Amino acid sequence: MRNHSNPFTSLDYQLEMRLDHAHGALTGQAYLDSLDDNREVWLDGQRVRVTEHQAYAGLRNEMARLYDLQHSDALREQMTVAVPDASYRISHSYTLPQDDAQLDAKWANSHLWMQNSWGQLPRVPDFMANVVVGLHDYQAELAKVDPQFGANAAHYHAYCARHDLSITHAIGDPQIDRSSGPAESADLALRVIKETPEGVVIRGAKQLATMSPFAHEVLIYMSPTFAMRERPEFVIWCALPMQAPGLRIMCREALARPENSFSHPFASRYDEQDAMLFFDDVFVPRNRIFLLRDSKTAFEGFRRLNAWSLYVGQIRFYHRMRTTLAVAAMVSDSIGVSSFREVQGKLGELTTYVEMARLALLGMQQERSRTAGGLLAPGSTLGPDTFAAQFGTRASEILRELGASGLLMQPSEADLATPELRPLLERYMRGKDIDVDRKSRLFRMAWDLTCDSYGMRQELYERWNRGDLARNRIALFNQFDRSEIGQRILDEISVPAPLPAGRELHAAPIQLDRPLRAAANDIAPALAAHMNPPLSPAIEGNQHEQ
Ligand SMILES: Cc1cc2nc3c(=O)[nH]c(=O)nc-3n(C[C@H](O)[C@H](O)[C@H](O)COP(=O)(O)OP(=O)(O)OC[C@H]3O[C@@H](n4cnc5c(N)ncnc54)[C@H](O)[C@@H]3O)c2cc1C
Questions:
Q1: Which class is domain 316-464?
Q2: pLDDT of residue 228
Q3: Is any ligand 1 atom within 6 A of the Cβ of residue 414?
Q4: Per CATH, the architecture of 11-299 is what?
């Protein structure tokens, strides 16, 4: 086991140091500087520095640009809010919405993050900041388990807001054997191996945590399935800085091509990275623990934490769909097919998804409600989430169908600059009312979005980031209140046939609004009742990750 001679002091020292330098909303440069620490990041078998490695250059620059928007004259007021009695402003991502105006301001900020990253960066800091808002909202329930857990949640929110932290989250267990559980083999889940008055030591792994190399902190909690552990040592909610001793971050293969940003305009900027986290006996100070041992509180808290971030995910989906639609329409124009009936039908189908996403956002805004913690939260995202997981792939497929061979047959930047080739490219690789340079760039964009390994990753993300689609559909079905229509149908089929002549029409009051049985933030009991749908026997499936 790692030697923790005085671990509390060392970690706590780091945290306090940061507190001393509270600055509110980050600038791009402050963000980049803050990544220059001792975090242990591995890429392709090499230990790397996030601030220096070429594969990370594109996202580094893009994140810095996005953070800087918070300080621009045009967007400062929309993205940040002044803190009374402080010299700085904090991001709206961390505000705790009490009324309609505050919630609207929060959403406007989320739109700015997502719009400015083309819907390509699911884990802009705004996303996880909203989970931390949820953690704050759940503090009373955590305090029932241990008053310090509740206080820690509130302090952690304040700390993250003051420092405008970028956070990743680690929810899922490593994919070793889904037919078994940690009670049978301890390596299957992260666990507490030691507890002292100062804190706990954790061992194990999490699969996976997006943005890890670029985050300041990891928030560890559990989806409802994973929360229902048979043994208490596997139930833990906590937060750690990414440079915590013993925490190893192993990134997947880099998808960015910074050396070839012409050919990969999105991949070179928006590869946000996904990583395995290995906790090789990592000390967690007591002030960073939000929950221990209590499965029920962990289980019921999941959606309370995620209520706002799932909505942010829908905002991201909407902007991703808009980007896909615009590229598809321009690709069609550029090769002269956009007036064909079948092509227009496909563009119309794509537009349907954009519209459904936009209207879902409006619906969730309309169904906002007060949480038990006193905040104002958006309506349930469960229906729109299953929609996005299903139709995200279809949207990419349409763009692939429209681009056809042009998606891969485009000149490179070097080809375009080659004098021997240039006249041929201008003659045979131009498009309809578009020169070869812009057409090539446009199709490269389409390739990145839907065919490149980056585009495939985005599709995987859309499909899986909210957990198992079948499971979420089952949860949605089970929560949907069919009682009124069910009763009317029962009445109807109970009438003896044949129907008596002149029978009066039923005039039952028809309920159209809020068909989900439970409010957005209180569906855990409904989920609990359906924890083991007959998907396959004795396997703990995944629940709605994010
Ligand atoms: C790009 C990307 C980014 C992600 N980012 C994060 C992140 O930042 N943080 C985080 O915590 N997680 C993240 N995830 C993980 C995500 O939550 C999981 O992928 C999701 O919950 C599914 O779990 P799994 O991948 O382990 O698949 P598994 O659970 O191993 O499932 C594999 C297959 O088995 C099926 N299966 C599993 N259990 C059952 C069952 N009981 N009955 C029937 N079939 C079953 C599944 O449907 C699936 O087809 C990310 C995933 C992706 C792809």
A1: mainly alpha
A2: 83
A3: no
A4: Beta Barrel (2.40)
